[in-house]
Amino acid sequence: MNAFRQAINGAFEYNKILPHQYKIVEGGIKSRMMYEMYLLQGNGKEPKPSE
Fold first, then answer.
1. Which residues of 5-40 are buried (b: 16+ CB within 10 A; e: fewer)?
2. DSSP per-residue string spanning 1-51
3. 17-34: pLDDT as tens digits
4. What is the model's pLDDT at position 21?
5. Distance (Å, rounded) from C-alpha 23 to C-alpha 40?
6. Phi-psi region of 22 (alpha: psi -120 to 50; beta: other; left: phi over 0)
7. Would the pTM of this model clear 0.90, i.e. be above it?
8. Distance (Å, whole) CA 47 – CA 11
9. 44/13 Cα distance (integer angstroms)
């Protein structure tokens, strides 16, 4: 799943979204990986992961 993560990072870089503006969270189960992406708010609060 590293290639998937690199593709996400590349897309954010291409669209000029800076690394401090987003967070990628890994999760899921071994047979079905899952990534969640959050745009971080200016107030420093992070959204809670979906369930």
1. eeeeeeebeeeeeeeeeeeeeeeeeeeeeeeeeeee
2. -HHHHHHHHHHHHHTT--GGGEEEEEEEETTEEEEEEEEPPTTS--PPPP-
3. 888 777 776 665 656 666
4. 78
5. 7
6. beta
7. no
8. 21
9. 21
Asked if 40 and 46 touch (Cβ cutoff 8 Å), the reply is: yes
Both tokens of 7, joined, read 């593709």
Mean pLDDT over 3-29 rounds to 78
Q: pLDDT at residue 51 above 60?
A: no
